Structures are given as C-alpha cells and as structure tokens.
Amino acid sequence: MDRPRFRSYFLHPRFWLMWLGLGLLWLLVQLPYPLLLRLGRGLGVLMYSLAVSRRQIAARNLELCFPELSVAERKRLLQENFASTGIAFFEMAISWWWPKKRLRRLAHIEGLEHLKQAQAEGQGVILMAVHFTTLEIGAALLGQQHTIDGMYREHKNPLFDYLQRSGRERHNLDATAVERDDVRGMLKLLRAGRAIWYAPDQDYGPKQSLFTPLFGIQAATVTATSKFARLGRARVLPFTQLRLADDSGYRLVVHPPLADFPGESEETDCLRINQWVESAIRACPEQYLWAHRRFKTRPEGEPKLYRKRQ
Fold first, then answer.
1. Which segments of the protein form a coiled coil according to its record (predicted)?
2. What confidence tens digit (pLDDT) does each residue in 80-139 have?
C-alpha cells in the first residue's frame, strides 16, 4: 500500500472543526507525561458516565470472565478500565506527534533479540498481540526499534485515516500496511521475512472460526494464526505491553517463539492461543479492551450473552 499523502481536499470547510480539535489536542500533548495520564483518567471518568452502551458491554464481559470477583470488585475494575481507555486517547496523540527521542524514553523493551534472530535468519514473524488499550503507543515504541508491518482497515473519515496512517508509519520508514482481507499480501510479506503485528483475540464471526474456551466460555476463535504461520512459513512470537504503575512508561515484551506451532490440528492451536490470551489479560485486566463484544457469536442453540442494542 502506498504511503499516505496530504491532499488539498483536507482543507475543505467540512474538516475545519476536526482540524480545530486536532490542533487543541496537539497543544495538550506537549504537556508533561504524568499530567497527560491524569487528564486521561479524568476523560475516562467522563466516558464511564456518558458511554452507557460500551460500559454495559464491558461490565458484562467482566461478569462473564471474572465470576469469582464480588460486584464491588468488578465495578472497581470497570472504572479502572475506563480510566485506561481515557489515557489511551492521549497515548494515541503522543505516539503520533511526540518527537521520537522524547517518545523513546518511555520504552522498556525485553526480548527484542527474538525478532532480530528471526530477521537474521530470513524468517517471517507473526507478532501475536492482544487488544490492550495501550495498543497504539506500544506499536509505536516497538516500531522505533524494529520494523513492523500491520493489518489495516481504512477509516471512513479520510482526514483521520491520513493522520492515523501518517502517525503510525513515521516510526517504521519501510513498513507496509496490509489490508485486513489481503491474505495473499500478508503471506507474501511473511515469506519475505517480514514481521507482522496480528491480534487473534476478537470475535470476527463464525466464518473461519472455531469455538474454543476462553475464560471458561466457548468463544469464536479465528483459525488464521495457524494458517498464516503454516502457509507463510513464519514463527509466532507472542507480544505483550503494559503501562507501568509508576508512570515511567511501558514494559514491552517480545516472548520466545511458540514451539511446535502450528500443531497437530487447528483446534489444538486455537486452544493454545486462547490460553495464552487469557493469561496475558489476567496479568493486567484493567488495561484490556473490554468494550468489545468478545462472545457475541454463540454455538448453535446457546442463548445470546449480551443485551440487544437499543
């Protein structure tokens, strides 16, 4: 996919209000990092009050996944999760607009040698991640150290799409954005020894999915990870990221490649992936994207787990 280019169309009056908002956001993110975290937490409190539908989805997910917690404990976790989501708004802007040197100070990266070894051996890599609220800034920090290609879905707003791609790709000067449905293009990159960020932890419907336990619940789990690894002759390296509690930045870990993957069956692979996803989420549940309806697709005959959207 070609690099994003500025178009004179972006100066059309229909975008003026958006430019104004983006300008104010740019000014805000020049503030010290600890202050931005506090502003993000405040935004999270506001979102908790106003985003009723998303709050209900997140609360339901926590109820399903952590039945051992009391109602009060789950409410506290839900509030922390919305605070983390509010912070993610500013983390997005930080990753797009902070000078690279300033941004780099936030990174505490472990396991980079696994990526470098695969690169030295000409081996493609599926960087298997999960949808944490720190996703945007985590990819930027890792991208400063090693080129990462990514799955991409075009945004409906062309100006936002331009800014999003420009902000992401400035950390990876030779990175490639792969359309989410471009399987052939992804396999080509993997066979060329590239590293591609990929997260298999969301519900993409029954097509190309198997029902596999996640937090004890049968969840539609995509089989693409093992297919990409097999057809692309690629290693699967789990990748986790965590916003540190002392406000010093982020701990990013590139884990060793999964041994004997793909395995004997897609069912075995999906179970193994979900077990890893669950362990990664349990290590930091307040920073996971719980507002996604992870269990919306149900096995035949099983009742729906979420309320109908109003």
1. none
2. 999 999 999 999 999 999 999 999 999 999 999 999 999 999 999 999 999 999 999 999
**CA 73, CA 57: separation in Å to the nearest integer?**
17
For 95, list phi and psi in degrees, rounded to 5: -70, -30
Determine the Cα–Cα distance for residues 287 and 57; give it in Å rounded to an integer: 15
d(CA 234, CA 237): 9
Beta-bridge partners for 218: 213
* Element at 241 (helix H, strand E): strand 234-243
Phi, psi for 110 (deg, rounded to 5): -125, 150
210 forms beta bridges with 221
Domain boundaries, the chain: 19-287
In this prediction the pTM is 0.92
Q: How far is it, in rounded angstroms, from Cα 52 to Cα 78? A: 12
Instruction: Measure the CA–CA gap between 125 and 7, rounded to whole angstroms.
Output: 34
Q: Give tens-digit pLDDT for 269-282.
A: 999 999 999 999 99
